[in-house]
Amino acid sequence: MRILISGASISGPVLAYWLTRYGFDVTVVERAPALRKTGGHAIDLFRPATEITERMGVLDRVTELATANTGMTMHRMPGGHQTNVDLTKLFSATSSRHVEIMRDDLSEIYYDAGRADVEYLFDDSISAISADGDVTFESAPPRRFDVIVGADGLHSNVRRLTFGDEAALSTYIGAYLAVISTPKSAATAGQNIVYASPGHLAGIYTVSHLPDARAIFMFKRTQPLEYHHRDVERQKGFLDTEFRGLAPEVDSWLDELGRTPSFYFDSVTQLHMDSWSRDRVTLVGDAGYCPGPAVGGSTSLAVVGAYTLAGELARAGGDHVRAFAAYEQAMAEPVRNSRAFARRAAKTLVPGSRAGVWALTAGAQTFSRLPAWLGNAVARANPGGVRVFDSMPVGDYPMPVR
């Protein structure tokens, strides 16, 4: 059975790994000319995704490249009041088995885990898909596949070709996220620096093995901005306008906009689809059910989704109709829970008032001062809170044949 996956970031390589272990013939097509190794930001693997990573035999490598961020200094603006936060206690409260790692590092680890058994087509993209599985590429010759999977992110090309315009399927939930690369000297390994003001959050961090530091920005907007998701210069202009003058340190990060080797900018948007499958096509991760970048545990959700889709295809013996239905049923509750959490987080993570900024910084400091056992107990007592990502089920599927 021949399966085509579009996208080689997180869910694509994870899905490819498990499908080849079940005996499927897998091709991955990726628009970029190679794995993306610049830019990106730190992401979280919660317990279910960590367990799947361990089953893939690469958890030790993930742990070796973990960010090891243990502390955070928050500056409440205006005024600059300083709050120190113990991140280890916050991470412990969110998950019983948590790892923070740079997105690009995780992508490379998953890619390396299965690359020997997978055909990768870089610097190419899908231009057409028929209901029978005929696929036309921008560069490679046409082929026929039994299943086509869109693992190509929030702005999925496969979803557009199969389900239509993104605007009809997405819901903006009130914020924007940006990441830029800055000189490594702007940050200290293991320590996050954050500036918070009403409607704005800016922070910087680095990791010992990175050649640079990463500045991350989030800001609130009642209505979505007008721009194309590939119009980088316009996005840089929005970012500079929103944050210029927040603090001298933040201004120095913004000064890198004209020469940063990498740049990310996107709205915090959710996808809402009645079904992620049509004919021989299905979607996984952000391409099908993005809960919202940075606020909804989307990386762990994508890893669990990829593992589940591969398992259901194996359990169904390649019957994609039966497998797609089981996959959507298995992921329905985790997706609902992640979306609900993301909507709450988008409102509270970037406070809209000075009182909200005070509450955010004071709450983080108070929580980090609690004994670890008490903080964990408080988190577990709220089933819809930060522990929601630990509740995602990891299915029990047949043992892989390879």
Looking at this structure, what is the CATH superfamily? FAD/NAD(P)-binding domain
Estimated structural class: alpha/beta
So how many helices? 13
| Average predicted local confidence, pLDDT | 91
The largest β sheet comes out as: 7 strands, mixed
Q: Compute the number of strand runs.
A: 18
Distance between the termini: 15 Å
Low-pLDDT parts are none
Tags for this model:
single chain; 402 residues; alpha/beta; FAD/NAD(P)-binding domain; 7-stranded mixed beta sheet; 18 strands
Description:
The protein has 402 residues and is of the alpha/beta class. The chain has one domain (2-169, 270-391): FAD/NAD(P)-binding domain (3-Layer(bba) Sandwich). The protein contains 13 helices and 18 strands. It starts with a strand and ends in a 22-residue tail after the last helix.
Summarize the structure in short.
This protein has 13 helices and 18 strands.
Architecture blueprint of SSEs:
Blueprint: E1 2-6, H1 11-21, E2 25-30, E3 42-45, H2 47-55, H3 59-64, E4 71-76, E5 81-86, H4 87-94, E6 99-102, H5 103-114, E7 119-122, E8 126-129, E9 134-137, E10 143-144, E11 147-150, H6 157-163, E12 170-183, E13 191-197, E14 200-206, E15 212-220, H7 232-243, H8 248-254, E16 263-271, E17 277-278, E18 281-283, H9 286-289, H10 298-315, H11 320-348, H12 354-369, H13 372-380
Helix pairs in contact: 1-5, 1-10, 2-10, 4-13, 10-11
